[in-house]
Specification:
Elements: E1 5-8, H1 17-20, H2 23-31, E2 34-37, H3 40-49, E3 60-63, H4 73-76, H5 78-81, E4 86-89, H6 101-110, E5 115-117, H7 123-131, E6 138-143, H8 148-165, E7 168-172, H9 178-188, E8 194-199, E9 207-212, H10 213-217, E10 229-234
Parallel strand pairs: 1-4, 1-5, 2-3, 2-4, 6-7
Antiparallel strand pairs: 7-10, 8-9, 8-10
């Protein structure tokens, strides 16, 4: 029999793991000995906080990130084929959502391997819940283009689709480019369009605020440089 691929959420930032992950999830993680992780160093820090019952040196950690070649994915599944359960860990939040782990999950599904998602923080859903925007119809677009003209076109298209479908549009940005995306939204969107900035979710520095673009233009610039932020837009 093959093992089960467990999708393990991790905290969205530094803090007490026990505050954001349920006890049954922590117990499941402690039973695993094989992991696929985005980066071994941060994964070890997470596993240390989980209080694993064995030394970390006894755990098998294989990396899966943007540098992993597609042809290497079957090797990462090998512990499952040998009957071991395997944990998939992202850098933050839920694995396989805006995360290279999605390719491993797809391969596991194609090979009829059981995939089990575990409960934990999702920045996208937490932001949507708190935004006051449309939670019945929404779409996540990942990262918008970094080049100015391409980003402008993407923003205009998102706003157009949001207005046509009454759909909340979600996107994220590399934290050091938060201000650039925010300024582009101010410049290109209608003043009546609403924008929520959800920053440092689940952390003590958490900030979630929804205003129209016209109102944002009259506010001091938000203090969210180099802080993970979800952008939510509803025209």
């Amino acid at each position: 029999m093959t093992g089960t691929l467990h999708l393990i959420p991790v905290p969205l930032g530094p803090g007490d793991t026990g505050q954001v992950l349920p006890a049954p999830v922590l117990e499941q993680v402690r039973q695993l000995r094989h992991f696929v992780v985005e980066h071994a160093k941060t994964a070890r820090a997470f596993l240390k906080g989980v209080d694993m019952p064995v030394p970390l040196q006894e755990l098998q950690l294989q990396e899966l990130n943007e540098h992993t070649r597609k042809e290497a994915l079957p090797t990462l599944l090998q512990p499952l084929l040998e009957g071991h359960d395997l944990g998939l860990i992202s850098e933050a939040g839920c694995p396989a959502v805006a995360d290279p782990g999605a390719d491993l999950v797809a391969l596991a599904q194609a090979r009829n391997i059981r995939v089990r998602p575990l409960v934990g923080p999702s920045s996208l859903l937490l932001a949507l819940m708190a935004s006051g925007l449309n939670g019945q119809r929404f779409a996540f677009h990942g990262y918008l283009p970094a080049k100015e003209d391409e980003r402008r076109q993407a923003i205009l298209q998102l706003e157009k689709e949001s207005r046509r479908l009454r759909q909340t549009q979600l996107c994220i940005e590399t934290p050091y480019r938060n201000q650039a995306l925010f300024q582009a939204l101010l410049q290109h969107c209608n003043p009546a369009t609403r924008l929520c900035l959800a920053t440092d979710l689940t952390l003590t520095s958490e900030s979630i605020r929804t205003l129209s673009l016209g109102e944002w233009r009259r506010q001091p610039p938000p203090d969210f440089e180099r802080r993970p932020t979800v952008f939510l837009l509803l025209a």
